[in-house]
Design brief:
The complex is a heterotrimer.
Chain A: H1 2-21, H2 35-66, H3 82-113, E1 122-129, E2 132-137, E3 174-176, E4 179-182, E5 186-193, E6 198-202, E7 207-211, E8 217-222, E9 227-232, E10 245-251, H4 253-264
Helix pairs in contact in A: 1-2, 2-3
Chain B: H1 2-21, E1 32-42, H2 56-59, E2 73-74, E3 78-79, E4 83-88, E5 100-105, E6 108-110, E7 113-117, E8 121-126, E9 132-136, E10 146-148, E11 155-158, E12 163-169, E13 176-182, E14 187-189, E15 195-201, E16 204-212, E17 216-224, E18 229-231, E19 234-238
Parallel strand pairs in B: 1-18, 1-19, 5-8, 7-13
Antiparallel strand pairs in B: 1-15, 2-3, 4-14, 4-16, 5-6, 8-11, 9-10, 9-12, 12-13, 16-17
Chain C: H1 19-24, H2 29-59, H3 68-71, H4 83-101, H5 104-118, H6 127-146, H7 178-207, H8 220-251, E1 263-264, E2 267-268, H9 276-310, H10 317-330, H11 346-358, H12 360-372, H13 383-405, H14 408-414, H15 418-448, H16 454-481, H17 499-529
Antiparallel strand pairs in C: 1-2
Helix pairs in contact in C: 2-4, 2-5, 2-6, 2-17, 5-7, 5-8, 5-15, 6-7, 7-8, 8-9, 8-10, 9-13, 9-15, 10-12, 12-13, 13-15, 13-16, 15-16, 16-17
The chains are: A alpha+beta, B mainly beta, C mainly alpha.
């Protein structure tokens, strides 16, 4: 029994690690300036935990193997160093790992969440609602109109609750269903929710941020690669949660200007 | 003498019934018509293109983006999707046995405005490859909210009280329509040219109402005789915002 | 054996007569323990069937599941789940499993049965409270199950019930009306039951230990139940008011969790001033200690059982107990790691991640002690032992994935993906449950006087051990791709190609689930036809093995045991050619 367990646990461990190692199912390429640090952190953690995983499971398997089929008269051995050696090993190994990961990881985290957006970043207002994302650009006047929840009317396309009749700044606001941005330019998002909690997740940006009703939450990034990427909702928001998404379209600067002009004309 | 009359009676009966029963179309209850056009003055708001990017199976069904429909105009300042109906003076009738049909296709509600009689059966179809979640926001009638996965059977329902019910889809926020539940069987929805025609009215005095989803209701009174056709026009004041 | 004892008698009631008093409204902690076990057994099978339904829907969305439309005609017309019904079943799966299985089975069931016996007491300190806590739990269960039968069905907001989705009522969509009210009421009732239970465990452990049973001589399972009770007392004390506030927001128009200006179903909500994050803080302040409530008793059970089969003392009892206490203490400092991207101050995320990573140290110590206890042993590989080995393996797997989620910089990618689902299922659904399995096979003879079938037990172990790895290891890979959790269908561009992986998981889950029927059959068959068990079939040392199988009404037949040893006296020259000393054996120098 012990030998069978040892063989099985070893097999499971090796097969599991193989899939991690081979990147069979893996993250999409990173397109964000802050994403590289996250990927680096992930690599470090994979190596560190991979060693612990391998060591732990193999040690378990080895001891189980050794514990089976022993004759009754073989002298019982005690783990060398006893409990004390294990406690010290745990504290040292795990402790060092923790310190390293925290120190390096806090930089990756800080770059995304603890630094403000660059001044002059392109501002986009993001609204999450059951079950779509809408994005608002300030338009040619460079100013965002005020938001009035009582004026929200999805049927007429007034998702944000703008009041163009009385609010001049709102008249040229551009409201679209995709987040269109120019490549290599800092983008500053402000996230707010119309109804319940939602979340903004773009895998290629290595970023995730919840929308909290009642709060306006900042999130900024710079995309380094042209392309079309999915923004998906990751906080359970009701029945349509699975179908709540938008596209992040990163365009070249000229394409973006062209797009902006077309939108402003509508 | 009496015997001859008696022999004639069955013949008379046969002739009477054949004349009446043999008629191909039943005599209409009344023959008057109220028709007209609904137009606007002023500047209506620009309709916005609907971005269906989040639902690719629907987006690809439209070569050009569909527009919002809250104020749909046509040539010569006409207004489409205005429901014109008899609000007073009508005897009222039992709901017809035909069903009315509402389709969800290309992530749009078709028709945008669906009038029906109170008590008439309504069938809602999902013709799309995506799940829809139909939520008629009734206040007088019971409010309900149901998912309709792709390929599922139509939903059968009915509304017993007259009401203007906005309809929305939770999953696709741009989808927007109306169930207009009416007491009367005399109603019409204006088309692209803004015209309407209420036929088969018995002679009498009526109040005609025209309802546009953004601009509300206007009424006019009109009296029609036996087979008269009277023109009643409605004009709504449009604002750019 | 010295039989004089001066400790207070636990209760003055006499042996019960009559069916109701004996088996229904019993004051006997053993009956109550079995009642909890039965409730947990029913809950786990319902929860497991729910998981099958969820997995089938994910992998084969067009498949018409037979009989499902009978359970809910609106929820599953023609046997195909609506998106909201999927979320309802998901919510009930999580709720039943976390509350009614993982808090009930390792803690309330085994703890109730064995804590008094292991410390040498006749019963719990407050037998009436004990009876009340079971029947209150049962009432909570009934209220929870009622949500299946109301018009809108069970709630769809997940077992975490985040506000404002859970707080605004029916305007937030189908599945958030009466079902959510029943959920909140049920959980509030459950909290009351758990508080009563925790108080009882603490008082019993501190006051009713037999003579010679010092704290350091208590079996590790008792220690685990004791530490868990302290955690539970503080944790449920926070969840109860949170549920009350939620109910008030829903029915009394208050706004604890709902800010102003929300528009749902085209209606401007008449609330203002509340904070959705407040719910998250309250919930996770309970929720994180809760997961340690789920795992610690199983760790204690495994640590108690393993030495019996290695025939060696446990390596490092003091370190084990110290680690349990450390985990209990640290468990209150880490709740924010569920909220790294929640919108709370991101600097708090850095602060919370530090104790989260530190808590891996006592967890690693315990894992190493368990593994080290195998070193050089001559092991008896009966079924309880197999589940001990399995526990160590799955606890390692589950703990390792915790390292990733403890770091905010990685959580920004992995939060709300299947990586999280893999992590908590490994530690809770698998590791904790392995502790329950081990405890069942180990203690069944004591509870019912009969042995469970060993062949069936082995089949159960091997199939389950392989099966759970096939179900939950692939979820890590899905998480690395960014597969979002709580989705009722995979329609996004990057998700559709992952469906073959989901199919593999679904089939593995169905097969592993089927293997649990072996366990169920074994339980039922052995209860009536298993070979009769002796007093101490495993040659174990703790006090429950010094009395009959099953124990008499007052546990020790009128005797008051006196304890002279800890539970660790294994693997030496014992009396009568045995290799162990029971805790009640005479002192070594006598």
């Amino acid at each position: 029994m012990g030998k069978a367990f040892a063989v099985l646990v070893t097999l499971i461990t090796l097969v599991s690690i193989a899939f991690f190692f081979l990147h069979t199912w893996w993250l999409p390429p990173n397109i964000s300036t802050t994403g590289r640090a996250v990927d680096h952190q992930l690599e470090e953690t994979l190596i560190g935990t991979g060693v612990l995983f391998l060591a732990g499971q193999l040690m378990l398997g080895w001891f189980a193997w050794m514990a089976s089929g022993k004759s009754k008269d073989a002298p019982a051995k005690r783990f060398p160093g006893g409990a004390a050696s294990l406690v010290v090993t745990a504290i040292l190994v795990v402790g060092i790992e923790i310190l390293t990961l925290t120190f390096v990881g806090s930089k990756a985290w800080g770059a995304i969440y603890l630094t403000p957006a660059e001044p002059g970043a392109l501002r986009v207002d993001v609204q999450a609602e059951q079950f779509a994302f809408y994005f608002r650009y300030a338009g040619p006047d460079g100013q965002f109109g005020g938001i009035h929840p009582e004026k929200i009317d999805d049927g007429s396309g007034n998702y944000f609750g703008l009041d163009p009749a009385n609010d001049v700044a709102a008249r040229d606001d551009i409201v679209v269903g995709s987040l269109v941005v120019p490549v290599n330019r800092p983008i500053s998002l402000t996230l707010h929710s119309k109804d319940v909690g939602h979340s903004f997740y773009v895998r290629e940006l290595r970023m995730q941020q919840d929308f909290v009703p009642g709060l306006d939450i900042p999130l900024h990034f710079t995309a380094t690669q042209v392309g079309k990427y999915e923004i998906v909702c990751t906080q359970l928001c009701g029945l349509g949660h699975y179908n709540m998404k938008a596209y992040l379209e990163v365009m070249s600067e000229p394409d973006y200007e062209q797009w902006l002009k077309t939108q402003a004309g509508q | 003498m009496n015997r001859k009359l008696l022999c004639l009676l069955p013949a008379a009966a046969v002739i009477f019934y054949s004349v009446t029963a043999g008629a191909e179309t039943p005599t209409p209850p009344g023959g008057a018509t109220i028709s007209g056009k609904v137009t606007y003055t002023g500047t209506p708001p620009k309709m916005k293109p609907i971005d269906m990017a989040k639902e690719p199976t629907c987006a690809k069904q439209h070569a050009t983006p569909v527009m919002t429909e809250n104020v749909t105009t046509g040539p010569d300042s006409s207004l489409q999707y205005v429901v014109v109906y008899i609000s007073e003076g009508d005897q009222g009738s039992a709901p017809p046995s035909e069903t009315v049909r509402y389709d969800q296709r290309g992530c749009q509600y078709l028709p945008h405005v669906l009038p029906m009689q109170a008590g008439q059966v309504l069938q809602i179809f999902n013709d799309d490859q995506t799940s829809h979640n139909i939520h008629p926001l009734a206040k007088v009638n019971p409010e309900w909210n149901k998912s309709q996965p792709a390929g599922s059977l139509p939903i059968d329902t009915k509304y017993d009280k007259p009401e203007f019910i906005p309809v929305k889809c939770n999953i696709h926020p741009w989808m927007h329509g109306y169930f207009v539940v009416l007491k009367t069987s005399h109603y019409a929805v204006t088309g692209q040219d803004g015209s309407f025609s209420l036929k088969g009215l018995p002679a009498g005095k009526y109040t005609v109402s025209a309802w546009q989803e953004q601009y509300g209701t206007q009424t006019q009174e009109v009296t029609v005789g036996g087979s008269e056709t009277k023109t009643v026009n409605f004009t709504f004041k449009a604002l750019p915002y | 054996m010295n039989e004089v004892s001066t400790h207070p008698v636990a209760h003055q009631h006499t042996a019960p007569t009559g069916f109701i008093r004996k088996y229904v409204f019993s004051l006997d902690h053993k009956v109550i323990g079995k009642q909890y076990f039965g409730l947990a057994l029913v809950s786990v099978f319902i929860g497991m069937v729910l998981s099958w339904l969820l997995r089938i829907h994910l992998a084969y969305p067009d498949y018409h599941i037979p009989l499902l439309s009978k359970l809910s005609a609106t929820g599953a017309p023609g046997g195909v789940m609506t998106p909201e019904y999927y979320l309802s079943l998901l919510t009930m799966h999580g709720t039943l499993m976390v509350f009614f299985v993982l808090t009930n089975a390792p803690f309330a069931a085994f703890g109730n049965y064995f804590l008094p016996i292991q410390i040498g007491a006749e019963d719990m300190a407050f037998p009436r409270f004990n009876m009340m806590s079971f029947w209150t739990t049962f009432a909570a269960f009934v209220v929870m199950m009622a949500s299946f039968f109301v018009a809108d069905g069970p709630p769809i907001s997940g077992w975490t019930a985040y506000a404002p989705l859970s707080a605004v009522g029916g305007d937030a969509g189908p599945g958030l009306a009466l079902g959510q009210d029943l959920w909140a009421i049920s959980i509030a009732i459950f909290c009351i039951a758990s508080l009563l239970g925790a108080l009882n465990f603490i008082a019993t452990t501190l006051d009713l230990r037999a003579r010679g049973m010092s704290l350091m001589r208590m079996p590790y399972s008792t220690w685990a139940w004791f530490v868990t009770s302290v955690i539970a007392l503080l944790a449920f004390a926070v969840l109860l008011p949170a549920c009350v506030l939620l109910i008030l927001d829903r029915v009394a128009g208050t706004s604890f969790f709902i800010p102003a200006g929300l528009v749902l179903s085209d209606k401007l909500q008449a609330h203002s001033g509340g904070s959705p994050l407040l719910w998250q803080h309250l919930f996770w302040f309970f929720g994180h200690p809760e997961v340690y409530i789920a795992i610690l008793p199983s760790i204690g059970i495994i640590a108690t059982i393993l030495p019996v089969f290695t025939r060696r003392p446990f390596l490092g009892p003091k370190a084990l107990i110290g680690s349990m206490v450390a985990i209990g203490f640290l468990s209150y400092m880490v709740w924010g790691h569920h909220m790294f991207v929640s919108g709370m101050n991101p600097f708090s995320a850095t602060i919370f991640s530090i104790p989260t990573l530190i808590i891996t140290i006592p967890a690693t110590i315990m894992t190493l002690l368990l593994t080290g206890s195998l070193y050089g042993a001559r092991m008896r590989f009966d079924t309880p032992a197999l589940f001990c080995l399995g526990f160590i393996s799955v606890f390692i797997s589950g703990g390792i994935s915790g390292f990733y989620l403890a770091q905010p910089s990685l959580d920004t990618y992995l939060h709300a993906t299947y990586f999280v689902v893999a992590h908590f299922h490994f530690v809770m659904a698998v590791a904790s449950l392995f502790g329950v399995f081990a405890g069942t096979y180990f203690w069944f003879p004591k509870m019912f006087g009969r042995m469970m079938n060993e062949t069936l037990g082995r089949w159960h172990f091997w199939l389950t051990f392989l099966g759970v790895y096939c179900v939950f290891m692939p979820m890590h890979y899905l998480g690395l791709v960014g597969n979002v959790r709580r989705y009722s269908a995979f329609v996004d561009d990057y998700l559709a190609p992952l469906i073959p992986v989901h199919r593999f998981i679904t089939i593995a889950a169905l097969l592993t689930g089927a293997a649990q029927l072996i366990f169920l059959w074994n339980l039922i068959w052995s209860r009536f036809r298993g070979p009769v068990a002796s007093e101490n079939p495993w040659e174990a040392t703790s006090l429950e093995w010094s009395t009959t199988s099953p124990p008499p009404f007052d546990n020790f037949g009128g005797k008051h045991p006196v304890v002279n040893h800890g539970p660790n006296e294994l693997g030496m020259d014992g009396p009568d050619g045995t290799d162990f000393l029971m805790q009640t054996a005479p002192p070594k120098n006598s």
